[in-house]
Prior knowledge:
mainly alpha, Growth Hormone, Chain: A, 15 helices, globular
Amino acid sequence: MSEAAALGGGRPGPLDRALRLFTDVRAGESATALLLAANVFLVLFAYYLIKPARKALILSGAGAEVESYASAALAILLLGAVPAYGRLAARLPRRRLIGRVTLFFVACLIAFFALGTMGVDVGIPFFLWVGIFNVMAVAQFWSFANDVYSTDEGERLFPIVAFGASLGAVLGSVAAGVVISHAGVMTTLLGAAAALWAGLLVTNAVDTRERARTEAGLPVPHTTAELPAATGEFAVSDAGGARPAAPTHGRGAAFRLVFADRYLLLIAVIVLLLNWVNTNGEYILSKTMATVAASSGRPADQVIGEFYSGFFAVVNALGLVLQLLVVSRVIKYGGARVALAVLPVISLVAYSLMAFLPVLAAIRWAKTAENATDYSLNNTVRNVLFLPTTREQKYAAKQAIDSFFKVAGDLASAGLVFLGAGWLALAPRQFALVNLALVCVWLAAVWAAGRRYQRLAGRA
């Protein structure tokens, strides 16, 4: 992208100057950044609006045990869903791809609402569907954002975009409570469908705006209006003489892309280890909290509910503050490589604390720091890693990494808990020691991925 295009031309407007309080915004960039923030806000708002419904429908029907087993079923379903998405991305331009996938999700929500209000037990299929929607819809948005921005733009502006995700998660959770208390669980599904429809309108606005800005002089067949999303080429704004990769089509192409490229494989390993470590940590906190609640002399469900209400509130509030005031500065002054290492370093300190001081207060604040950093800085920089990749990698490989490998980390944690708690009778302190070993491997993967990102970003 030329410098003139990057700057948007002209002088910075009032909105550009206002957003400079949070990150480096140049002339003409604020509108697209805020539109993308609104877009991901609506996607996350929709998800957190239906997340309580997901819990309510399966726990009131199938029960907690089936909920645990559903993670394995979700991984199997993703083995089919990810390649199917990759084949669709290899045929459709990004606007039509996102439109069709989003409208499919909207139609599913309306169908589940209709079946649920007719008394049909939709607990298990809805639980599995929400799991697929969560990972694929969010990954699709970030694929689009990576396609819109060059590497330099993404590093500077993703902190603003990701703030929309954080705000959507918070307000979606609040709205879910209000809707459920006044209109019932199933009504949240219609609210989520409306949010997704609104988000699609924002996506189309961003697509129109950015194509006019970056592709005005290109023949239509060579623009993102006609080129399939997963073309194997670098983004139009990043082309600049870079050699495009050969497109990979066929069954399982998304997974082949990941395993054929060491950089993508490192990102996949990071995502797997992150979710493995984090889910282990959630088990440590849950197990410790359950023990404390059982000996409190009060109803255990009341004690646990009060604890987690306060815990989630603090985590989300801290995540918002970090996203708004800290994330852009860490990426700007430390670079993506340093930003990527922050969360595993925090996890190293957190699980060292849990291993040697396994009390609820220490575990709570260690997990608060880990989760808040994960939801803000780490979420942003993990999406920054895809900026210097090809369009095919952005749309196809990213879906595989953000969906299947994320769930694979959860499955690895479930297996460890089954073996450690059920067969070896490990205490929370010993699970923390296992996490310390996993974090060391995670840090090694982060170091290697950071080096490769610097080389790719330099070429892009």
